[in-house]
Amino acid sequence: RQVLAELQAMGVVINHEFGNIVTAQVPAGMMPRVAQLARVQSVQTATPMSLCNDEARNASRVNELHESAPAPYTGRGVVVGMVDVGIDFNHIEFRDSEGGNRIKSVYLPEVEGGDKAVIGENELPGSKYATIEQIASLTTDCDNMSHGTHTTTTAAGSYTGNGFYGIATEADIVACAMPGDKLTDVNIANSLKYITQYAKR
Q1: pLDDT of 115-130, one tens digit each?
Q2: What is the pTM of this model?
Q3: DSSP-assigned states of every residue in 18-65
């Protein structure tokens, strides 16, 4: 606590404490003085970071699992359900080895024009697209976002031509998507029901 008081007395703005590490706003010319305080072990400026999704498979040991498991865990026979914003339903990452789309069904709770999504005796709002032709006619749920494509690719992307691909490369995909301002708890709940019903069928 004493060192925090010393820093504040010098005009340093303390942002947060993480155990014995402090993030703070320090005028550049004051860095040598801060470094000389008795209780300060080291100082450093903010370090630019880089995205490392290209290393995600190695870091999470997925490559090791795919290469050494007795039966490869590729997602075959599994349904990956995704609820997100900004999914490109015909992205190359969602193709199987013969070029077919692994997205088997799409539910868009805020879009009219497809088939009605009926579960039991109840009708969900929006539309479902469940044929090859219907899904091929889709582009995206949201032109200015691509988060859903990113997350779905991480989970189940299969294109290996550039070395970057997902985990469950042979899984079937059910995509439920909506524009960001429509990402409501009700739409998410209905989407989860849609996914689970697809999986049961």
Answers
A1: 999 998 899 999 999 9
A2: 0.76
A3: ETTEEEEE--GGGHHHHHTSTT-------------GGGHHHHTTHHHH
